[in-house]
Every structure is written in C-alpha cells, then in structure tokens.
Amino acid sequence: MTRHAWPAGWAFLLPALASVHTVSFLMYTTRRYRTFAVVAGVATILVPFLLDALGLIPSSYVFEEGRLSITPIMIEFHPAKLKVYLLLAAVGLVLLPGFVLGRYRVALEKTEEEAFLSAWNVRHILPGEARKAAAMLQRSARREAAAQFGSAPSTHSKTRAPKAA
C-alpha cells in the first residue's frame, strides 16, 4: 500500500506550514533567492494536490452524503493524540512566525538606530557650509527623481503649495 507523509492529506496543515516557511525564507534570504522561495512554497502545496487529483497517491479525503471524511493514510488516528498534535501544530504556527518576525524586527530597529546615530554624528561633525551643500544636493536629487519617475516631490521637501484663502 502506498503511503504519504501527511496523516490528514495535503490540505490539512501543509498550506500553513508552507506559508510560514516561505515567509521565513523571504525574511532572511537575499533577493536572488526570493523567487525560488515563493516557487518552492507554492510547489509544496501544488505537487501533493496534483498527485492526489491524478490518483497517483491515495486520497485522504472522502466526500459522501454531504460530509467530508479525512482518512488517515500513514497513521492511525488516536483521538487524544490527534488533539494534542493539532494543538501543538496550531500553537507552533503562531510561535514560529512570531519568533522569526520578532528577530527581524529587532534587527531592523538596531539598523534604524545605527543610521540615526550616524546621521546625528555627521550633522554635528560637518561644518555649517558642508551641511548646507549636502542639503542642497539632497533637494536636487529629490527633484531629479520626481522628474524621472513622474511623481510629485517628496512630502519632506520644504516647498509647499500655497494655502487656499
């Protein structure tokens, strides 16, 4: 008898796990591998679905008399053990992204703080004329970007539309 790795079929817990893993990879990988991470996440769901739909693996889902029955293929369900498994899986699906995104947020806050401190130090080290020249270059760069991309100037620019009377 052919067996597959999911006790409750491809649609039971697999999409949530694939989602969590895909987001985790996207958070920590370089741009070069992001497309691969998304494709792998989608394939993790599509491949078992297609194998089931084509009858290449036994279906875990039986539809009869308006009911859906989940048939275990790999293991025998024990009600108490299954409830514990489902509870741990659900809690894990909250904790894992919470842990990953929490670490990412800490790294982001640290980077923002370092950038702020660097900018503060540069503002206090540079002489006044150099700060004025840097500000002029920054405004010029904003105008060039707005012209190139056809967008309005940044809300940070000092030029404002006149107020209506």
- Tally of discrete structural domains: 2
How confident overall, as mean pLDDT?
78
* SS summary, helix count: 4
The gyration radius over C-alpha positions equals: 27 Å
User: How are the strands of the largest sheet arranged?
Assistant: 1-2
Write down the secondary-structure element order: HHEEHH
- Helices and strands: which structural class? mainly alpha
Give the biggest sheet. 2 strands, antiparallel
Give helix % range.
Answer: 55-70%
Please explain how this structure is put together.
- The chain has 165 residues and is mainly alpha-helical.
- The chain has two domains: 1-77, no CATH class; 78-149, no CATH class.
- It contains four helices and two strands; from the N terminus they run ααββαα.
- A two-stranded antiparallel ribbon has the order 1-2.
- A hairpin with a 2-residue loop joins strand 1 and strand 2.
- Helix 1 packs antiparallel against helix 2 (31-53) and helix 1 runs parallel beside helix 3 (79-125).
- The protein is elongated and about 80 Å long.
- The protein starts with 13 loop residues before the first helix and ends in a 16-residue tail after the last helix.
What's the gist of this structure?
The protein is mainly alpha-helical and 165 residues long. 65% of the residues lie in helices and 5% in strands. It folds into 2 domains: 1-77, no CATH class; 78-149, no CATH class.
